[in-house]
Amino acid sequence: MAMEAWFMEDSDSDPRLPHHRNPKEFVPLDHLAELGVLHWRLNPTDYENDQELRKIRETRGYNYMDLLDICPEKLNNYEDKLKNFYTEHIHADEEIRYCLEGSGYFDVRGKDDRWIRIWIKAGDLIILPAGIYHRFTLDTTNYVKLMRLFMGEPVWTAYNRPQEEHPARKEYVESFTKKVGVALKAH
């Protein structure tokens, strides 16, 4: 099944709910690619031997990997960490996550600053570009197992909004003025 994305309704209710607008407004994956969000669909049951994953890691220089189980039973300070993940922020580097089990939501800001909700499930590898405002939460299953990939030493520093003067944010915004009308290729 292909990854799904949609424009979110404005709501302060449980972030683990889908928050579809009425009527629903789905976002094509090409639109996400225009924002710099890349996606691959892989086989999560054999990630140790997956040649496509190996190729992505080699091509993009991801030489560090770890696994993270996010659920109340396996993550210390679960509620606090989930709140931190859901706080709008950017990173100075790409955020690369490969969903091995379970599911959750990455929310990203579109060009018009509206939230786009991306539902990742087992097999989805997603790359968020440096400088994009985003956040993460679980869905109502309350469980996801993620592979985190990095170039070099892992860096988890989140810079909460506003960050308009951060070099990664400036470069991200500038990339739109350089690419006027040119979409990035989605995988």
Automatic annotation (TrEMBL):
The cofactor remark states: Binds either 1 Fe or Ni cation per monomer. Iron-binding promotes an acireductone dioxygenase reaction producing 2-keto-4-methylthiobutyrate, while nickel-binding promotes an acireductone dioxygenase reaction producing 3-(methylsulfanyl)propanoate.
Cell compartments where the protein resides: Cell membrane; Cytoplasm; Nucleus
Q: Classify the protein's membrane topology as the record does.
A: Peripheral membrane protein
Binding residue positions for Ni(2+): 89, 91, 95, 134
Cofactor(s) needed by this chain: Fe(2+); Ni(2+)
What Pfam family is a match, any one?
Answer: ARD
Any one GO molecular-function label of the UniProt entry: iron ion binding
Q: Under which name does UniProt file this protein? A: Acireductone dioxygenase
